[in-house]
Write a structure and sequence with these properties.
The protein has about 180 residues and is mostly helical. It has two domains: about 50 residues; about 110 residues, yfbu gene product, domain 2. It contains nine helices and no strands. α1 packs antiparallel against α2. It is elongated.
Length: about 180
C-alpha cells in the first residue's frame, strides 16, 4: 500500500474507507457510479486484499500525485477532442466520414507509461467534468501524438467550428501515426 493510505486492516481504518465510499454514494445519481461504490464497499467489508488498490484508486488515494502540468495538459486534450467531435457533427456526412477515414479524430486513451495522465482523465470522467470517451483502435495514438495535435490546434481553437481542412491539419493522419512514434 502507498504510504499514508487508508488502513484496510483495522476496524477503524475499514470504517473510515467505508464512510468515504458511502459519502461518495450520497452525491451521485449515476447508477454505474453507485454500483461501483457498492462494489468497493463489499471489497473492504470482505477484506479482499487483491482489490484494495482498485478501492484506493476509486476514492482518489494513489501512490503518486497528479502534477498540475499533467492536469492542465489532459484538460487541453479533452477540450481539443470535444471541439473536434462537435465540429465533425456539424460537417456534411460525406466530409465527416472522409476526415474520420483519413485521420484519428477520436481520443484513444493514454499508453501505460502515461498512467498519471490516465488517472487524471478517469478523475475528470468520474466527476463528470468531461465525457470524452476512449475509442480503442488497433494502433492507438500516444501522448506524443496528442502533444503534436495540441500544437497544431493552438491556431484554430478560437474558431467556434473547425472546418474539414482545419481538422485534417490538427489530427494525426493514419499513415503518419507510426512516423511520429519513431
Amino acid at each position: 500500500m502507498p504510504p499514508g493510505s487508508p488502513d484496510f486492516i483495522s476496524t477503524a481504518g475499514k470504517i473510515q474507507v467505508i464512510t468515504a465510499l458511502e459519502n461518495m454514494l450520497k452525491f451521485n445519481d449515476d447508477q454505474e457510479y453507485i454500483d461501483h461504490c457498492k462494489y468497493c464497499i463489499d471489497i473492504v467489508r470482505q477484506g479482499v486484499e487483491f482489490n484494495y488498490y482498485e478501492v484506493l484508486d476509486f476514492i482518489g488515494v494513489t501512490s503518486e500525485p497528479v502534477p498540475a502540468e499533467v492536469s492542465i495538459e489532459v484538460i487541453f486534450i479533452m477540450k481539443m477532442f470535444d471541439h473536434i467531435s462537435l465540429s465533425l457533427s456539424k460537417l456534411p456526412r460525406a466530409a465527416a466520414d472522409y476526415v474520420e477515414l483519413e485521420c484519428y479524430t477520436k481520443f484513444c486513451g493514454f499508453e501505460t507509461s502515461a498512467a498519471v495522465y490516465l488517472s487524471y482523465y478517469i478523475f475528470l470522467v468520474r466527476t463528470q467534468q468531461y465525457r470524452v470517451p476512449i475509442f480503442k483502435e488497433a494502433l492507438p495514438i500516444t501522448l506524443i501524438h496528442y502533444r503534436d495535435m495540441l500544437l497544431r490546434y493552438e491556431r484554430y481553437k478560437r474558431y467556434p467550428r473547425l472546418t474539414e481542412e482545419m481538422m485534417m491539419d490538427i489530427c494525426v493522419r493514419r499513415e503518419q501515426q507510426m512516423k511520429l512514434i519513431l
